[in-house]
Amino acid sequence: SGHADLTKSFLMIHESCKEYGATPSQYMAFLRIYRSIYSSKKTELIKRQSHLQAGVSKLNEAKALVDELKGKAAEQSTLLRTKQAEADAALQEITVSMQNASDQKTEMEKIKYKIAEEVSKIEERKAKIDDELKEVQPLVDEAKRAVGNIKPEALSEIRSLRMPPDVIRDILEGVLRLMGIFDTSWVSMKSFLAKRGVKEDIATFEARNISHEIRQSVEELLQRNRASFDPKNAKRASTAAAPLAAWVKANVQYSHVLERIQPLEKEQAGLLENLHKTESRKNKLEDQLNSVGQKVNELKDRFQSRTTEAAKLEAEVSKAQETIEAAEKLIHQLDGEHRRWNAQVEEMTEELETLPKRAQLAAAFITYLSAAPEDRRKASLEEWMKLSGLQKFDLRHFLCSESEQLIWKSEGLPSDDLSMENALVILQINALKSLSCACPFLIDPSSRATEWLRTHLKESRLEVINQQDSN
């Protein structure tokens, strides 16, 4: 539809100029000039647009790079805070560990003092116990040795008696009772003496196993039959009876002492238990103190590592921040340029859309209006603009730049619209020599246009011919 309308408007423009003598050859020139203007302007616009788009792309890339740098800087800042927190935590752990070590050392000193006190108390109790036992212990030891020295024949002699003397019966009853045997019949006594290892059982008997009741019953026996336990009477009755009697009396006496020192032994046992617990705690503290040193060294290494990493990150973040600030400053300074370039790109896109119509009007002006007066030029252009649907069209702005017009003025061209439009037509036709059958014809009474052409086209080896010249 757009191409059909454009093609139709070519014919309508040509038809509107027929009353002024428009010819078919002019129509063909119109089409050739249009194609040339459209092609050159399109190439120029696309080149300018590409150049601007490249600039816009570079600025967009710079903005994206700054955003990427910001993201990396934010990540590094987060990592920096993490490393600083880890370093602070390691330092805090070192402080706590050192404080704990100090507390443990203080506790260690207290424990050592406590151990010394407990050892002293234990030694004191042991001394008291030893003092209590020093008189009776030799008696018990001597009695055990004496029992161990009893000859088997002596025991066999006692066992062979049908009815033993009272002395022997009383002594054996004391032995059996102390050893927890309450059947004190003669049969039981003979059976006891017949056991293998009976001497060893008696010699190794533990007096601590004597209960208060057993000891009391034996004491009553000793009190009641005191004569039976007399060493002389016992020895007279049997060589084996005397050691056994001494053993009974020594163990009864020893049991009394053991009962008396029982509180001391109990206290000593408690002190020993406390000493064991205290020494265990001391050993544990020593292990902890040894491990604290190793842990503190590990924490110091970690602290040093995190501090070094944090310092490196801080330098990187600082450098990145400086780069970002410089880049943002530059981007901010170029922000106006960025907006202007984007606007120009949009303008060029619009210009490319309207380029066919504007190139058509410019070609029509060059083809049909170059010899027309100003009022006809203006009227025809307005009519063609309505025909093409353009709201605005400036021939001078379309075909040349402001800087070119200033150069022409400096070269002597008058600045009025007619002179400028004629200059555009001359230069366009000159540039399209092979595409246009037209040849500019100037009526220039003041010679200003001629002088301007001499100046403007001096690089083109312009040849000036005067009709009055002889050759």
Largest sheet: none
Q: Return the structural class.
A: mainly alpha
Helix-strand topology string: HHHHHHHHHHHHHHH
Tally of alpha and pi helices: 15
Low-confidence stretches: none
Tell me what portion of residues adopts beta-strand conformation: under 5%
How many runs of DSSP E, i.e. beta strands? Answer: 0
CA-based gyration radius = 67 Å
- Globally, the shape reads rod-shaped
Helix content: over 70%
Taking the alpha carbons of the first and last residues, their distance comes to 58 Å
Mean pLDDT: 86
Key descriptive features of the protein:
rod-shaped; 471 residues; mainly alpha; 0% strand
Structure description:
With 471 residues, the chain is mainly alpha-helical. Helix content is 80%, strand content 0%. The protein has 15 helices and no strands. Helix 2 (24-148) packs antiparallel against helix 10 and helix 8 packs across helix 9. The model has no long low-confidence stretch (mean pLDDT 86).
Question: Brief overview, please?
Answer:
With about 475 residues, the protein is mostly helical. About 80% of the residues lie in helices and about 0% in strands.
